[in-house]
Amino acid sequence: MVIQPSQRETHTPTVEDAMALGLTRAEYELVCAKQGRPPNQVELAMYSLLWSEHCAYKHSKKLLRTLPTEGEHVVMGPGENAGAVDVGGGLVCAFKVESHNHPSAVEPFQGAATGVGGILRDIFAIGARPIAVLDSLRFGEVDGERSQRARYLLDGAVSGIGHYGNSIGVPTVGGEVYFEAPYEQNCLVNAMALGLARQEQLVRSAASGPGNALVLFGASTGRDGIGGASVLASAELDGEGEGAADKRPTVQVGDPFEEKKLLECSLELLQQGLLVSLQDLGAAGLTSSASEMASKGGVGIDIDVASVPLREPDMEPFEVMVSESQERMLCVVEPANVQAVLDLCEKWEVGGSAIGTVTDSGLMRVLSGGELVGEMPVRALVDDCPLYDLAPQRPARQLYPAPAATLAADATLAQALLALLASSNIASRRPLFEQYDAIVQSRTVRRPEQADAAVLALPDGSALAVSIDGNGRRVAADPYRGTVAAVLECAANLACVGAEPLGTTNNLNFGNPEKPHIAWQLTEAVRGLGEACRALAAPIVGGNVSLYNEGAAGPIYPTPVIGMVGRLPDARRAGLLGFAREGDEIALVGAFTPSLEASELAKLRGEPLPQELPEIDLAATIAAQAAVRAAVRAGVLSSAHDIAEGGAAAAIAECCLAGGLGARVELPAPSGSWAALFGEASGGFIVSGPAQALSELAQGAPLVRIGAVGGTALEIALAGAPGRPVASVELHELDAVHAGGLAGCFP
Amino acid sequence: MKFGVLQFPGSCDEVDALEAARRVGDAELIWHGDRDLRGADAIVVPGGFSYGDYLRAGAIARFSPAMESVIAFAAAGGLVLGICNGFQVLCEARLLPGALLSNTNLRFTFRQVELEVLNSGGAFTRDCRLGERLSIPAKHAWGRYYADGETLAAMDRSGQLVLRYAPGENFNGSAHDIAGVCNERGNVFGLMPHPEHAVDELVGGSADGLKIFESMRLAVEGARV
Question: Is B194 part of the annotated catalytic residue set?
Answer without folding.
Answer: yes
